[in-house]
Design goal:
Blueprint (H helix, E strand, L loop, with lengths): L1 E6 L2 E6 L4 E5 L1 H12 L7 H11 L2 H14 L12 H4 L8 E5 L1 E2 L21 E2 L2 H14 L5 E7 L7 H18 L2 E8 L6 H10 L2 E5 L4 H7 L9 H15 L5 E6 L7 H8 L4 E6 L15 H20 L5 E2 L12 H5 L8 E4 L4 E3 L13 E2 L9 H8 L7 H4 L4 H4 L4 H8 L7 H20 L2
Parallel strand pairs: 4-7, 4-13, 7-8, 8-9, 9-10, 10-11, 11-12
Antiparallel strand pairs: 1-2, 2-3, 5-6, 13-14, 14-15
Helix pairs in contact: 1-2, 1-3, 2-3, 5-6, 7-9, 11-17
Length: 453
């Protein structure tokens, strides 16, 4: 599918099937518009003649160039039908896990989907070493022949259960030796409890670390107070700086959330970029009426802010002061690969979450929704509920009516199932606001890619 758009005074055309991106002028945009109206075929001569009156006979040369691109399948590339069997020839297998080290937290973030740590249960709990070991064993067994596995040590705040973090890292190393698996470890933390021992251990043992911080002091402290209601920004920044001094070139992300209270979130991205060069800033997911949820009327402001951020990043690249903004990263260098690009997060099929009680859910955002519980790692034998799991298989190839003719489907894979469920009541539903933001981020990514040529 061809997507043509104008951003910051420049026309771009992107073929989502081939992955080809072209910067074009006003004249070419008019001609491509005719091709789009003609379903990707050369427009009728009277249509081209009409344009030639305005633009001159160069119109015909442009049409010839477009025909060449069509023949090379760089524009209006035929759609590729992809099945689950093609994507997963040895069947989908659980290969990634979000392991909840605790359902407790030392912050009381207002927007927390996890209910400030207890996931809405009213019960705060810690993962035991025994349950953690069983979860790791379950992942290894469920992965079958898959060699490369991922575990995210998550919470709540996982550093509150530090002895179990250390014990389970050692157990992962032991099981890798025994099974010839490679387990990539990530830890997600609010950085409040980072001290030198923890910093050294994380840097030695975790391939990735996600550090939560929302941006400028007033923005961060408004949404992320501690359990006593006090701001946490200064403590978090102090600990992040210590961590990154040791981390060096190791992988990490400074991960923030923006709400409708800070729709000028580019300023918060820049605040994070002062700390480190790997930055992510997610839009909040919140119920209507919360006061800080993203609303339909906010979209023009948000889209303009993403464009402003893209301009800032482009200028910083040219000035030699670049940083990596996660949502503007797009790899088009490997050519058309629908198989690779269609694969999403694998919720419920390749990815799962395990709670301190050992309950298995499709992902961390479904934890606490009892109807989505798939099993428990303490069961003998562990059997996943196929009735719960089966609907998630249908998400492995974007097949929603809203996605079928969408140019962005190869990059969002139908969007977040949890967001769709919480917005529409169905994992196969849609999240119109989330879709609009995703498309704008992708357009910014494409614009930035074109500026590197």
């Amino acid at each position: 599918m061809v997507h043509m758009f104008k951003m910051l005074g420049e026309y771009l055309v992107f073929d989502s099937e081939s992955g080809a991106l072209h910067r074009i002028d006003d004249m070419a945009s008019e001609v491509i518009g005719l091709y789009q109206a003609a379903a990707g075929t050369r427009p009728a001569m009277p249509e081209l003649e009409r344009l030639a009156i305005t633009y001159g006979t160069d119109i015909y040369e442009i049409a010839d160039e477009i025909d060449t691109l069509i023949d090379r399948e760089e524009l209006f590339c035929p759609a590729r039908e992809v099945t689950v069997e093609q994507l997963y020839p040895d069947q989908p297998r659980i290969k990634s896990m979000c392991l909840h080290l605790c359902h407790d937290c030392n912050l009381r973030c207002e927007y927390c989907f996890a209910g400030t740590g207890d996931f809405g249960t009213g019960h705060r709990s810690m993962l035991s070493e025994e349950v953690g070991r069983r979860a790791i064993d379950f992942l290894i067994e469920a992965s079958g022949p898959r060699k490369h596995l991922d575990i995210d040590f998550f919470g709540g705040e996982p550093l509150m259960n530090w002895p179990v973090v250390v014990a389970l890292v050692k157990y992962c190393r032991q099981r890798m030796t025994e099974t010839d698996k490679i387990i990539r470890l990530t830890i997600t933390t609010n950085a409040m409890l980072l001290d030198q021992d923890k910093i050294d251990f994380i840097n030695e043992n975790f391939e990735n670390c996600v550090l939560s911080i929302d941006g400028r002091p007033a923005v961060h402290d408004r949404m992320r107070p501690d359990a006593g209601g006090h701001g946490s920004h200064d403590r978090v920044v102090r600990n992040i700086k210590k961590f990154l001094e040791v981390r060096g070139k190791g992988q990490y992300y400074l991960r923030g959330t923006y709400t409708r209270h800070n729709l000028d979130f580019a300023e918060d991205v820049l605040h994070l970029a002062e700390l480190g060069d790997q930055v992510s800033m997610e839009p909040v997911v919140a119920p209507p009426g919360s006061g800080y949820e993203i609303r339909q009327e906010d979209l023009p402001t948000i889209e303009a802010e993403y464009e402003r951020l893209a301009q800032i990043i482009d200028q910083r690249r040219r000035d030699g002061n670049a940083f990596n903004f996660f949502h503007f990263v797009m790899d088009l260098s490997n050519g058309p690969c629908a198989f690779k690009r269609l694969k999403g997060c694998g919720v419920g099929m390749e990815y799962c979450a395990v709670t301190p009680e050992g309950d298995i859910y499709p992902c961390h955002q479904f934890v606490g929704e009892e109807q989505f519980k798939m099993g428990n790692v303490m069961d003998e034998p562990i059997t996943l509920d196929t009735v719960v799991q089966h609907p998630f298989k249908q998400l492995m190839v974007p097949d929603k009516p809203e996605c079928h003719d969408c140019w962005a489907k190869f990059f969002c894979s139908g969007g977040c199932a949890a967001n769709s469920y919480h917005v529409s009541g169905s994992i196969t539903g849609s999240d119109p606001i989330g879709c609009a933001m995703q498309k704008k981020r992708l357009e910014c990514s494409l614009w930035l890619k074109s500026r590197q040529v």
